[in-house]
């Protein structure tokens, strides 16, 4: 069951479908999607760390609240939760004052695809919806932007094609031209430079950084 509200009455498993873990473990070190996302995540974390050092005079510590294979920090979490605000409130509870939470979620319900199904997502977000959930949890938002504008159109076209044809791969990670991973990863990762300087008006994902007072 999927919804655009923050609470889902009919519960699904929080973890992804079991077969997707082996696929994820196989591709996350070389697939262009993960290569590019790591560059983007690193740029955001690199911007947060100096602030924490200045404010707390201590080395920042990172708590990974995800449940992936361990190959990446898992920021795609709250779309798996029946009540995303409750999950965000728990993240706030374990943060020390002045700590930051970094959240990445999938964007736009009309971009729903096979990967959302096999990942047991409850929802995809619009930027105002994510901002509302984060603020309801008690955070002060420092930055929120769409991301992955580069492959927005190919993602949209691919998912429309799968809907029309009924094509359902075991994971969308299997739809790939491996020889292009390096090139596509660099193209996608180049968004990190732009995201340090501007917000995107749309994208496949949303990135949000918020502070606990």
What does this 3D model show about the protein?
- This protein has 213 residues and is an alpha+beta fold.
- It has a single domain (19-211), classed as Rossmann fold (3-Layer(aba) Sandwich), CATH 3.40.50.
- Helices cover 41% and strands 10% of the residues.
- The chain contains eight helices and three strands, in the order H-H-H-E-H-H-E-H-H-H-E.
- The protein has helices at 19-27, 32-56, 84-94, 114-118, 127-136, 152-165, 181-189, 191-195, and strands spanning 100-106, 140-147, 205-211.
- The protein has a three-stranded antiparallel beta sheet, with helices on both faces.
- Helix 2 packs parallel to helix 7.
- It is globular.
Helix content: 40-55%
Numbering strands along the chain, what is their spatial order in the largest sheet? 1-3-2
Question: How many runs of DSSP E, i.e. beta strands?
Answer: 3
Task: State the distance separating the first and last CA atoms.
Answer: 35 Å
Order of helices and strands: HHHEHHEHHHE
Radius of gyration: 17 Å
CATH class: Alpha Beta
CATH topology: Rossmann fold
Q: Look at the helices and sheets and give the structural class.
A: alpha+beta
Number of domains: 1
Largest sheet features: 3 strands, antiparallel
Note the beta-strand portion.
5-15%
**With helices defined by DSSP (H or I, 4 residues minimum), what is the helix count?**
8
Looking at the overall shape, the CATH architecture is 3-Layer(aba) Sandwich
User: Mean pLDDT, rounded to whole units?
Assistant: 85
